[in-house]
């Protein structure tokens, strides 16, 4: 009898425990599934088709959460923001599936920041984002042709200085005006960097050189162990290629770091980054009225009239089919010489298209000619020309790429077609109005932060590769 009672008790307890375990598993699964589904819905409201697990691994997921909060106002506002996002970005797979290696999944371009982000070292620091530096700059860890003692490089000298809390000394070797350099009290430097101009000495840690200002008879220079030579140039290689292509120049194998307009540089220096900032519906202008009030077609504002890229010849051909007004040194009218935004607003008001043609056809050479058009309130569509795949960097419907047309005539006829349809043109104005150009980050701060972060990997560059691979 006792055995029978014990057996029934154990069986009863077994079923009780099993029931509790099953209920617990069911509740846990239900809660997790609903939470995951709700998260997917929140992201799908923004037109983001990313896997949630990938997003959670993104160090910039807060940027996407901020984007979500920007559109969480009302149903109509959410629909408007979602629609503009999908039409302006997410449906273009070639752009949204770019090869950017940044962790952020908000945008796939080194030029565009997410809503709420500010320009900082972390946002513009890229290590070989699009092309390998070995291919673009001819980088090697060691190079027997390099100038001694530059055959092996590293950060050991700078690391020792930082451990002693000594400032890192930057020597701007061939710069012109020492008054342009920041002093020790410059806010971003935190007394970790000192800048000077003068002859190279043993105390210098980083030698910053601009090739455009370098005398062709500069000859060889002496360098000390542990010094890093930084190639700093925003001009296109077409303007200094002959000097660096000379096999006899001692500068060919001098450089260990690069800072240029190319995202493949060690320290990326864009002219002006952009930020995606959707305009609340109640603050948006009437884009259709803006389109209808445009009375002129194309405008070109330039000071360099004889360029390597021959843009002036292309524009002359365009003039046979569409009216193009020219301002600056290349035209009969001079205005907005400083190209300040208030002046550009007044100048661009009657025009539909701005010819943002680069003066050199070099890879990744994208200058303020394009970025300035994204300033708030200009309400004009840029037409671009350069040796770039612009759709790789910039969102669709914010520019017109001349390379997509067989001739200047075909491009001109396309512009005339857009000009005749106020509705289609108004849509372009609305999309471009969601991107705002920002001031370029302070270059001195960027260099100081990049070097003292000890994240860089100095190498020895055959800098002539930069020229032959770019233009």
Automatic annotation (TrEMBL):
<dbReference type="GO" id="GO:0032580">
    <property type="term" value="C:Golgi cisterna membrane"/>
</dbReference>
<keyword id="KW-0333">Golgi apparatus</keyword>
<comment type="pathway">
    <text>Protein modification; protein glycosylation.</text>
</comment>
<keyword id="KW-0328">Glycosyltransferase</keyword>
<dbReference type="InterPro" id="IPR038577">
    <property type="entry name" value="GT10-like_C_sf"/>
</dbReference>
<dbReference type="Pfam" id="PF00852">
    <property type="entry name" value="Glyco_transf_10"/>
</dbReference>
<feature type="transmembrane region" description="Helical">
    <location>
        <begin position="14"/>
        <end position="32"/>
    </location>
</feature>
<keyword id="KW-0472">Membrane</keyword>
<dbReference type="GO" id="GO:0008417">
    <property type="term" value="F:fucosyltransferase activity"/>
</dbReference>
<keyword id="KW-0812">Transmembrane</keyword>
<dbReference type="GO" id="GO:0000139">
    <property type="term" value="C:Golgi membrane"/>
</dbReference>
<keyword id="KW-0735">Signal-anchor</keyword>
<keyword id="KW-1133">Transmembrane helix</keyword>
<dbReference type="InterPro" id="IPR055270">
    <property type="entry name" value="Glyco_tran_10_C"/>
</dbReference>
<comment type="similarity">
    <text>Belongs to the glycosyltransferase 10 family.</text>
</comment>
<keyword id="KW-0808">Transferase</keyword>
<dbReference type="InterPro" id="IPR001503">
    <property type="entry name" value="Glyco_trans_10"/>
</dbReference>
<keyword id="KW-0325">Glycoprotein</keyword>
<feature type="domain" description="Fucosyltransferase C-terminal">
    <location>
        <begin position="292"/>
        <end position="466"/>
    </location>
</feature>
<protein>
    <recommendedName>
        <fullName>Fucosyltransferase</fullName>
        <ecNumber>2.4.1.-</ecNumber>
    </recommendedName>
</protein>
